[in-house]
């Protein structure tokens, strides 16, 4: 689990004004540990702080994403999910058969950013990608059933 106080310090140094509600939201996200949607963070926060609005959670997570404290990705679950940025970017393989999410090392993508920048002069943000497909188990079970 990430240390919320550390992240709050980081956010403050990057120019974010840390209000009480923002601190509560970031702590909740750290407690959830891993990917969390606005919905999940909000329901966690609401348990102890029912006064915090969903829109405040949404805006705070967006701000933290803009400061690159959090990264945002779409894992195909119908909502964006946020996660604390660690020292190395990480990515995911998302199975469209069973919904399983596996981690994928950044080494698979490190060269893509350089190549795209070289060829298009486009600076890509490659800190949290989801790649969709079928896991081995799902391919095998589909193979058996026809
Ligand atoms: Zn992730
Ligand atoms: Zn699968």
Q: Secondary structure elements and their pairing?
A:
Layout: H1 4-13, H2 20-32, E1 36-37, H3 38-48, H4 54-66, E2 70-74, E3 80-84, E4 91-95, E5 101-104, H5 110-120, E6 130-133, H6 136-145
Helix pairs in contact: 1-2, 2-3, 2-4, 3-4
This protein binds zinc ion (ZN) (2 copies).
Structural notes for this entry:
Helix content is 47%, strand content 17%. Strands 1-3-2 form a three-stranded antiparallel beta sheet. It has a three-stranded mixed beta sheet with strand order 5-4-6, with no helix packed on it. The protein has helices at residues 4-13, 20-32, 38-48, 54-66, 110-120, 136-145, and strands at 36-37, 70-74, 80-84, 91-95, 101-104, 130-133. The N and C termini lie far apart (43 Å). The protein contains six helices and six strands; from the N terminus they run ααβααββββαβα. With 146 residues, the chain is α+β, with helices and mostly antiparallel strands. Helix 2 (20-32) crosses helix 4 and helix 3 packs across helix 4 (54-66). Strand 2 and strand 3 (80-84) form a beta hairpin. The longest helix has 13 residues, at 20-32. The protein is globular. It binds zinc ion (2 copies). Residues 35, 83, 90, 92, 128 line the site of one zinc ion.
């Amino acid at each position: 689990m990430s240390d919320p106080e550390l992240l709050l310090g980081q956010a403050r140094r990057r120019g974010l004004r840390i209000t009480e509600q923002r601190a509560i939201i970031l702590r909740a996200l750290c407690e959830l540990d891993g990917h969390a949607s606005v919905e999940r963070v909000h329901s966690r926060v609401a348990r102890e702080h029912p006064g915090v609005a969903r829109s405040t959670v949404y805006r705070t997570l967006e701000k933290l994403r803009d400061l690159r404290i959090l990264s945002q990705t779409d894992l195909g679950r119908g909502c964006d999910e946020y996660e604390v940025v660690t020292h190395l970017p990480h990515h995911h393989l998302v199975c469209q058969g069973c919904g399983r999410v596996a981690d994928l090392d950044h080494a698979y993508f490190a060269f893509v950013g350089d190549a795209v920048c070289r060829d298009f002069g486009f600076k890509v943000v490659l800190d949290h990608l989801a790649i969709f497909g079928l896991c081995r188990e799902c391919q095998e079970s589909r193979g058996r059933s026809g």
